Amino acid sequence: MVDKERIVITGLGLTCPLGNDLPTFRNGLLEARSGVRSFSVRNMGEQPAGVCDFEQTKYQKRKEVRVGTRAGGIGIYCAREALKNAGLDLSEINPSSVGVYLGITEHGNVETETEVCQQFDHYEQDVKYWTHHHNPRTVANNPAGEITVNLGLTGPHYTVGAACAAGNAGIIQGVQMLRLRECKVALAGGVSESIRAYGIFAGFKSQGALASHSDPKKASRPFDKERNGIVVSEGGCIYVLERLSDAMARRANILAEIMGYRINSDGTDYVLPNPERQEECIRQALKNAEVTPSMIDLVSSHATSTPQGDPQECKALENVFGISENTCINNTKSFIGHSMGAAGALELAGNLPSFGDGMVHATINIDELDPTCSLSGLVMNEAKQKRGGINIILNNSFGMLGINSVLILKKFSG
Description:
Elements: E1 7-15, H1 22-30, E2 36-41, E3 45-50, H2 62-67, H3 70-86, E4 98-104, H4 109-123, H5 134-138, H6 142-151, E5 157-161, H7 166-179, E6 185-192, H8 198-207, E7 232-233, E8 235-243, H9 244-249, E9 256-265, H10 275-289, E10 298-300, H11 309-321, E11 328-330, H12 333-336, H13 343-351, H14 354-357, E12 359-360, E13 384-385, E14 392-399, E15 403-410
Parallel strand pairs: 3-7, 4-5, 4-6, 10-11, 10-14
Antiparallel strand pairs: 1-8, 1-9, 2-3, 6-8, 9-15, 12-13, 14-15
Helix pairs in contact: 3-6, 7-13, 10-11
């Protein structure tokens, strides 16, 4: 039987288009400041994108950066920052007791594209010029594995491939492994290097789902009537998860408690979301957390700014929460774009400070609200103070091939 001991967050590290730590990220959200900018994409020219600007050599040597991957570097930065934020000293921890569970959307595209282009442009088909780093760079467990190599960890590590639901899925995996006592500390979350891959931009463009706008800061506009697609973004967010008893024993600063979760599948389409299954996922997560819809203070929506996807989620949210004066709804992609495998983890991070200050950051770039997305409680363009504060947050994160994930957290109260 799975141990149901309470699981808490004691630290986090992140990098995103609005900054490289939570206070900076949060300030940008409350100030309604977009982090999206113009970015040059191979064969496609300038595109709106969410770009991270963190110090890659803070925790890696230059050679390690060259040998490793962008996703691995993001993961290493976030993991190191998370451990520091949690007040954990690796020299005092059994390295085999730390598990690493990272959500990813895809991995290896960047390296494969680069190698293929170089090979064909310069070396034809002579494989002796193909880098011997290619295989370790492109194996699916790479970002999590790079963290263990960098930190000298010997506990379990793997990635969770869950499309754009992966950030939540990585956290859920960490919770499950702690309850199974497979580890004492879980480094869990998600990472993405998506902006480095031509194929991702080209795929969304071909699908008619890539955002365009004369002002890149206005390109990501969930729920707006004129929205026209996804802004591709990179980033990462990793949490330190612990069993409550262990966190209390070391007098850790507890940021939040994980109440419940659910992952399910649409089983209907490769791309188009199924609102009935999304609704089902939300309701099952509420049941798992033993809360009712009226108890949710804040819903962090998944909405990606696509013409078809946003209304589908809105149907699910309206069916669950109806016309509620208590539940606020916001969206973080309007600020940073869609960071794919990191999205759920980053979007949760941006909302965690609400437990302390009671503020709900807005969804920006809504010039004219689409009537099909007219949700009760939607916070638009300006942050608001919620009467009664924020005690419970529900975090939606959905992905291609119909994978849905919902995570519910509460303000820690002892």
